[in-house]
Amino acid sequence: MNKTAIIRCEHFNAAHRLHNKNWSDEKNHAIFGKCNNPNYHGHNYDLEVKIIGVCDLETGYVIDAKILSDLIKDKILDRFDHKNLNLDTEEFSSLNPTAENIAMVIYNILKPELESSLELKIKLYETSRNYVEYPCL
Ligand code: NI
What we know:
It is a single chain. By secondary structure, the chain is α+β, with helices and mostly antiparallel strands. The chain has a single domain (3-134), classed as 6-pyruvoyl tetrahydropterin synthase/QueD (Tetrahydropterin Synthase, Chain A), CATH 3.30.479.10. It is 29% helix and 28% strand. It contains four helices and five strands; from the N terminus they run E-H-E-H-E-H-H-E-E. The protein has a five-stranded mixed sheet with strand order 3-1-2-4-5. The chain is elongated. The relative contact order is 0.21. The protein binds nickel (II) ion (NI).
Protein backbone atom coordinates (compact mmCIF):
# COMPACT_ATOMS: atom_id res chain seq x y z
CA MET A 1 0.00 0.00 0.00
CA ASN A 2 1.33 3.44 -0.88
CA LYS A 3 2.35 5.77 1.90
CA THR A 4 0.91 9.23 2.47
CA ALA A 5 2.57 12.28 4.03
CA ILE A 6 0.80 14.64 6.38
CA ILE A 7 2.53 17.93 7.06
CA ARG A 8 1.89 20.23 9.99
CA CYS A 9 3.18 23.83 9.68
CA GLU A 10 4.10 25.68 12.86
CA HIS A 11 5.94 28.79 13.85
CA PHE A 12 8.11 29.94 16.71
CA ASN A 13 10.33 32.86 17.55
CA ALA A 14 13.64 32.40 19.28
CA ALA A 15 16.94 34.14 19.88
CA HIS A 16 20.33 32.59 19.41
CA ARG A 17 24.02 33.17 19.03
CA LEU A 18 26.26 31.03 16.87
CA HIS A 19 29.60 30.66 18.60
CA ASN A 20 32.37 28.11 18.93
CA LYS A 21 34.08 28.58 22.28
CA ASN A 22 37.22 26.85 21.01
CA TRP A 23 37.80 29.61 18.45
CA SER A 24 39.06 33.19 18.78
CA ASP A 25 36.59 36.08 18.61
CA GLU A 26 38.02 36.92 15.18
CA LYS A 27 37.46 33.44 13.82
CA ASN A 28 33.94 33.28 15.27
CA HIS A 29 33.09 36.57 13.64
CA ALA A 30 34.63 35.50 10.34
CA ILE A 31 32.68 32.22 10.25
CA PHE A 32 29.34 33.19 11.80
CA GLY A 33 29.12 36.90 10.92
CA LYS A 34 26.06 38.65 12.32
CA CYS A 35 24.88 35.39 13.91
CA ASN A 36 27.90 35.69 16.26
CA ASN A 37 26.59 38.95 17.80
CA PRO A 38 27.43 38.60 21.55
CA ASN A 39 24.05 40.04 22.57
CA TYR A 40 22.08 37.52 20.52
CA HIS A 41 19.47 38.13 17.81
CA GLY A 42 16.15 36.62 16.87
CA HIS A 43 14.66 34.59 14.06
CA ASN A 44 11.07 33.82 13.11
CA TYR A 45 11.32 30.11 12.51
CA ASP A 46 8.84 28.29 10.32
CA LEU A 47 8.68 24.60 11.06
CA GLU A 48 7.21 21.86 8.90
CA VAL A 49 6.78 18.46 10.49
CA LYS A 50 6.15 15.77 7.91
CA ILE A 51 4.83 12.36 8.98
CA ILE A 52 4.88 9.59 6.39
CA GLY A 53 3.05 6.32 6.74
CA VAL A 54 0.30 4.04 5.54
CA CYS A 55 -3.23 5.29 6.23
CA ASP A 56 -5.02 3.46 9.00
CA LEU A 57 -7.87 1.45 7.47
CA GLU A 58 -10.37 2.41 10.14
CA THR A 59 -9.65 6.15 10.52
CA GLY A 60 -8.18 6.97 7.11
CA TYR A 61 -5.46 8.90 8.94
CA VAL A 62 -1.68 8.59 8.84
CA ILE A 63 -1.82 10.34 12.21
CA ASP A 64 -4.63 12.38 13.74
CA ALA A 65 -3.78 16.03 12.95
CA LYS A 66 -4.97 17.10 16.40
CA ILE A 67 -2.66 14.62 18.10
CA LEU A 68 0.22 15.81 15.91
CA SER A 69 -0.57 19.46 16.64
CA ASP A 70 -0.72 18.84 20.41
CA LEU A 71 2.53 16.88 20.28
CA ILE A 72 4.39 19.69 18.51
CA LYS A 73 2.96 22.26 20.91
CA ASP A 74 3.82 20.29 24.04
CA LYS A 75 7.26 19.05 22.99
CA ILE A 76 8.62 21.79 20.70
CA LEU A 77 6.77 25.12 20.86
CA ASP A 78 6.42 25.23 24.64
CA ARG A 79 10.12 24.41 24.89
CA PHE A 80 11.58 26.79 22.28
CA ASP A 81 9.08 29.57 21.46
CA HIS A 82 10.14 32.99 22.78
CA LYS A 83 13.29 31.51 24.29
CA ASN A 84 16.92 32.33 24.04
CA LEU A 85 18.08 28.97 22.71
CA ASN A 86 21.62 29.30 24.11
CA LEU A 87 20.63 30.47 27.59
CA ASP A 88 17.15 29.07 28.20
CA THR A 89 17.32 25.54 26.78
CA GLU A 90 19.25 22.49 27.88
CA GLU A 91 19.46 21.25 24.30
CA PHE A 92 21.58 24.20 23.12
CA SER A 93 23.55 24.96 26.28
CA SER A 94 26.56 23.43 24.55
CA LEU A 95 25.29 22.62 21.03
CA ASN A 96 25.52 25.48 18.51
CA PRO A 97 21.92 26.46 17.64
CA THR A 98 22.28 26.47 13.87
CA ALA A 99 19.18 25.69 11.81
CA GLU A 100 20.77 22.31 11.07
CA ASN A 101 21.16 21.48 14.75
CA ILE A 102 17.72 22.83 15.69
CA ALA A 103 16.10 20.60 13.04
CA MET A 104 18.05 17.59 14.32
CA VAL A 105 17.08 18.30 17.94
CA ILE A 106 13.41 18.65 16.97
CA TYR A 107 13.58 15.33 15.10
CA ASN A 108 15.21 13.60 18.08
CA ILE A 109 12.54 14.92 20.46
CA LEU A 110 9.56 13.97 18.27
CA LYS A 111 10.69 10.63 16.82
CA PRO A 112 10.33 8.60 20.04
CA GLU A 113 6.81 10.02 20.50
CA LEU A 114 5.58 8.52 17.21
CA GLU A 115 4.64 4.98 16.34
CA SER A 116 7.77 3.30 15.00
CA SER A 117 6.08 2.58 11.65
CA LEU A 118 5.86 6.32 10.92
CA GLU A 119 8.66 8.21 9.18
CA LEU A 120 9.46 11.73 10.32
CA LYS A 121 11.04 14.57 8.39
CA ILE A 122 11.71 18.06 9.67
CA LYS A 123 11.94 21.19 7.55
CA LEU A 124 13.01 24.35 9.35
CA TYR A 125 13.05 27.80 7.78
CA GLU A 126 15.37 30.26 9.49
CA THR A 127 14.51 32.91 6.92
CA SER A 128 12.20 32.84 3.91
CA ARG A 129 15.25 32.03 1.79
CA ASN A 130 17.16 29.61 4.02
CA TYR A 131 15.83 26.31 5.25
CA VAL A 132 17.14 22.93 6.25
CA GLU A 133 15.74 19.42 6.07
CA TYR A 134 16.49 16.61 8.52
CA PRO A 135 17.03 13.78 8.00
CA CYS A 136 18.09 14.11 4.39
CA LEU A 137 18.91 10.77 2.80
NI1 NI B 1 21.00 33.78 13.36
